[in-house]
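pinging the channel bc i need a second pair of eyes. not urgent but kinda urgent?? the chain im working w is below, pasted from the shared doc
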Amino acid sequence: MTIHHSHPFEASEQDRNPLRRFRGRMTSPVSIWAAATEGRRAGWTLSSFLVADGEPGEVIGLVDEESALADILPETTAVTVNLLGWDQRTLADAFAGVAPAPGGPFSLAAWNDTDWGPVLTNSLGWIGARLSPDPDHAGWGLLLRAVVERVEIQANPADEVLCYVHGRYRSLAL
């Protein structure tokens, strides 16, 4: 057995995608986008999103086409964006499908139903938004645009914002 100073399965420098490496240096907040229809819920962990101020404001995100959220989108017109804190990183992994979630990821935390979909009760804040019809593609992701109809922000968050950078979760104090 030998001990390596680098990851044994890591691609060599010349084989790495430069765009992915550039994106990996950008700090992104972590959220769970969720929707519901006819008693079914679906959600997906998302750090590839932005909030555009304006009249009306919009939220724009890139969702994996293979996700449970993408499957439910044709049956709904609304979505919630739930901003996560440092203590919710396990929940983020469950909704991303990289951690176990016996009973499904919604069973791991308390959620409230709203006109826009499920809202995480202890999120740092959430947005309720109306989806634009006919999502598009950007890169390999499904590009969602939604008009913001409601914003709720936790007055005194006890947690730090959960961020994703260099392939790892980091905390960012508010």
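so The two ends are 45 Å apart (CA to CA). and The helical segments are 18-24, 68-72, 89-96. — does that match what u expected or am i reading it wrong
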